[in-house]
Amino acid sequence: MKPKKLKGIGGWLIVYLIALIISLISFSAVFFTALNYVLISPSGQLNPVLVLMGAIIVLHVFSLILILKRSKLAIKCNILALWFVVATMIFSAAEVNKIILLNSIEFYLALGDAIIWSAYFVRSKRVKNTFVKKVTF
Question: How far is CA 77 from CA 28, 44, 107, in A?
Answer without folding.
Answer: 19, 32, 21
